[in-house]
Amino acid sequence: MASPFADFDAAVRGVNDSRYGLQAGVFTNDLGHAWSAFEELEVGGVIVNDVPTYRIDHMPYGGTKDSGQGREGIRYAIEDMTEIRVMVLASPD
């Protein structure tokens, strides 16, 4: 959903007030706003000057809040299918 705004900080607060946080598209010519959006938005990913209509397998795609559990992508699929184990072998004195 596109939501034009006049005040950047108010727009960030508006996004963060949502119970959802999958992905966000931020359109700006201000690199400071792009970095600020990345640091402050409570979402799984920030796409600058495009909309989040795609995912690439090596990108950690996923959301926060009520927008999903965990991440998708090759690394996360491998972790989900792997049982991490440890063996400690003490050498005799």
Q: Secondary-structure element order, as H and E?
A: HEEHEEEEH
How many whole angstroms does the radius of gyration measure? 19 Å
Class derived from helix and strand content: alpha+beta
Fraction of residues in helix = 25-40%
User: Regions with pLDDT < 50 over 5+ consecutive residues?
Assistant: none
Spatial strand arrangement across the major sheet: 1-5
Quickly count the helices. 3
The rounded distance between the terminal residues' Cα atoms is 67 Å
Number of strand segments: 6
Briefly say what this structure is.
By secondary structure, the protein is α+β, with helices and mostly antiparallel strands. Helix content is 28%, strand content 17%. The chain has helices at residues 8-16, 31-40, 74-80, and strands at residues 20-21, 23-26, 45-48, 61-62, 64-65, 71-72.
Characterization of this structure:
By secondary structure, the protein is of the alpha+beta class. Helix content is 28%, strand content 17%. It contains three helices and six strands, in the order H-E-E-H-E-E-E-E-H. It has helices at 8-16, 31-40, 74-80, and strands spanning 20-21, 23-26, 45-48, 61-62, 64-65, 71-72. Strands 1-5 form a two-stranded antiparallel sheet. The relative contact order is 0.17. The model has no long low-confidence stretch (mean pLDDT 83).
List keywords for this structure.
93 residues; alpha+beta; two-stranded antiparallel ribbon; two-stranded parallel sheet; 3 helices
Question: What layout of secondary structure does this protein have?
Answer:
Layout: H1 8-16, E1 20-21, E2 23-26, H2 31-40, E3 45-48, E4 61-62, E5 64-65, E6 71-72, H3 74-80
Parallel strand pairs: 2-3
Antiparallel strand pairs: 1-5, 4-6
